[in-house]
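RECORD TYPE: inverse folding
INPUT: structure tokens
STRUCTURE:
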């Protein structure tokens, strides 16, 4: 297929990647799994002069638990790497299963968690569950590094605070008191379909009391959206079907989806309502499943 010309670089270290990105400026783009980037280049929607591959940064392919910090996931871990990770399956099956709901096996073998976040599209499946679990991200450039809550990364549809020359290197899910979490997505096909809407929740349950809930929605606004009114309503409530249903209604009301070929705004709001109610019940009953 006809593609724009580009020069390919594959530096051996993160330091070299950052130095090269600083030198090339806006002529360069980072390449991870390429599932989005190469596709856009084939359509001539992106025509970077230089591709800087992260392929030699093996340290970014690890998932590990760091005592006092939490589960640290390297940005180059693939979606299937997230799905099959024994550590995530043991601690956060919710994250592992969110990855399994994405795309097709072929795409999951290539597409990385870093690329899924860096794209900053509202239909991305990993950001909502990571936001619900209060994940942070590390961004590194030739000028230094910074760590910020993932939630603050997204500023608009396909827009983020990622500065030119910055590389997303890792995602940390902090050790937490949430007793359960899950992500439920609705796509137009059982597999390989983007989310028409999705709801991720993390709950802290004590007996029959919902101490705290965090709800993060996909395809419900230009960015991942926290359903804060629903969260406030749930805080300290005695768990019942009526309470969960009310929280679903509130989440639907505060979502701001758009009409698109995959579904009308009204349809998506109805989905958010139903998915949020189901996700809350699942996280309460099944823990981090
Ligand atoms: C057929 C198909 C189906 C899909 N289905 C789904 C789905 O169901 N759910 C879903 O969420 N997504 C889906 N996607 C989207 C895609 O698979 C993911 O977004 C993927 O995770 C992107 O990762 P990548 O490593 O391939 O990124 P790339 O294509 O390499 O890069 C994407 C963008 O992110 C930047 N980038 C990548 N890594 C970094 C980094 N570490 N630091 C800084 N910038 C970086 C690149 O410069 C580029 O701008 C689908 C894609 C296809 C083609």
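DESIGNED SEQUENCE:
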């Amino acid at each position: 297929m006809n593609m724009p010309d580009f020069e390919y670089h594959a530096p051996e270290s993160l330091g070299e990647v950052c130095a090269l990105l600083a030198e090339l400026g806006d002529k360069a783009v980072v390449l991870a799994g390429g599932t989005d980037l190469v596709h856009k280049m084939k359509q001539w929607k992106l025509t970077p002069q230089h591709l800087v591959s992260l392929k030699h940064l093996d340290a970014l392919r690890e998932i590990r638990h760091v005592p006092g910090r939490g589960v640290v996931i390297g940005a180059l871990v693939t979606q299937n790497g997230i799905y099959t990770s024994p550590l995530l399956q043991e601690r956060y099956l919710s994250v592992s299963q969110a990855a399994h709901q994405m795309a097709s096996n072929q795409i999951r073998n290539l597409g990385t968690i870093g690329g899924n976040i860096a794209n900053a599209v509202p239909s991305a499946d990993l950001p909502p569950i990571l936001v619900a679990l209060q994940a942070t991200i590390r961004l590194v450039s030739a000028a230094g590094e910074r760590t910020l809550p993932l939630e603050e990364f997204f500023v608009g549809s396909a827009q983020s605070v990622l500065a030119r020359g910055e590389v997303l290197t890792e995602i940390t899910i902090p050790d937490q008191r949430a007793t359960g979490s899950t992500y439920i997505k609705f796509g137009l096909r059982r597999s390989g379909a983007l989310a028409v809407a999705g709801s991720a929740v993390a709950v802290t349950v004590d007996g029959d009391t919902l101490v705290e809930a965090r709800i993060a929605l996909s395809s419900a606004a230009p960015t991942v959206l926290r359903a804060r009114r629903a969260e406030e309503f749930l805080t300290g409530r005695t768990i019942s079907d009526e309470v969960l249903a009310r929280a679903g209604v509130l989440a639907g009301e505060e979502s701001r989806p758009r009409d698109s070929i995959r579904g009308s705004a009204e349809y998506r709001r109805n989905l958010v309502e139903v998915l949020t109610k189901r996700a809350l019940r699942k996280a309460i009953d099944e823990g981090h499943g």
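NOTES: The first helix runs from residue 14 to 24.
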